[in-house]
Amino acid sequence: MSAAREPIGVIGTGYVGLVTAAGFAELGSDVVCVDIDAEKVARLNRGEIPIYEPGLAELVAKNRERLTFTTDIAPALERARLLFVAVGTPPTYSGDADLSAVNAVVGAMPASDRHALVMKSTVPVGTGANTKRLFAEQGKSGFRYVSCPEFLKEGTAVADFLAPDRVVVGDDGDWAGDAVVDLYRPLLVPDEGGNGPGQLVRTDIASAEMVKLASNAFLATKISFINEIANVCEETGADVVEVARGMGLDERIGPKFLNAGIGFGGSCFPKDVTALKQLAGNSGYHFQLLNSVIEVNELQKRRVIGKLEKHLGGLVGKRIALLGLAFKPNTDDMREASSLVLAARLQAAGADVVAHDPISGEVAKPMLRGVELAPDALSAAHGADAVVLVTEWQEFRDLDLADLRAAMRGDVLIDGRNALDGEAAVAAGLRYEGIGRTARSAAPAAAGV
Asked: Pfam families under this entry (predicted)?
């Protein structure tokens, strides 16, 4: 890519900010990354990546000469017109998004008619209008604002940035929006002047803000729906995997996000669903559907306890092994992870809990008091009365189930992601139960055999 591309600033170096910075550096832009966490900045300057994301460390190293990491906003303001904001907006106790970090960025900006904030953080609809109002009140009305929501999936974020399915730009039709589109141009479809797969959605600011919230709420709804179908399948003898396969072949539905399991987690879906529900409520509308999506998701995490009790009776003194802790594979993110709820419920029921995750063990450790962390899957399974697959890491899919059974004291395997071969589990001597599938176990031997 041409080194003459426009330089940019990125404020916040978490998942979104660091991937965005590395991605634009790969496209040829010089990027000044700003973060208030001095230790994180020091680590980045030493070449250490503070998060796990496949391909990110390699991308940062490859483009290191284009990346500057600092705690000072001044170099970003001096070198770049466009300042991408990627700070955290966690939920408050009320369910509203905490915009204190966003407002701090707004307050730190000087009066300028040559700069623009480009909002990557997920924010409520109306944040753009409020930011422009704050700029006006602070004598900074020349400062421009663009909404450009991110659609990066943890575990595939680098690929998602470099090959987006869409780029959404919400602006007031001025130079700032044009400049953002130009930055993304190489990733857009040929009709938009690029050579990539991304469709351009150029729209108003409020609509761009809503696209992100509505997208994640819909995907979360799809997950809760298939989990409800899975629960009905368990009562009727149907197999949710077959049901989802048949549903997914309908192009109006599609196969994605039809994998039944023990609920969604992570930094986006729970937060964004709650934020949209709260936004609707604050606007005078009761979003009843999203209430159900949230309730189904919370209950789904707890259904595993019922499955274990069905097979083991009481859980007091039972040793339960959890395979996987992160909310999904290929990330170390523990935010809203199902493992946290499951471990707490098991401990409350009197079980001894041991767990293994290939990546997130150290991140999870302070969140899992009293949970033993094992160095590998078979060590976690050693002496266990039951094993629960919580996160479908590839190494768990590849486990030799006979070895797993040999390591265990009991024989119960709960497949919380329908990722394992039930027939192979039964052949290995395990009592297998997935989500929305009939429980399976080896037939008892005939008398005299």
From this structure: UDPG_MGDP_dh, UDPG_MGDP_dh_C, UDPG_MGDP_dh_N
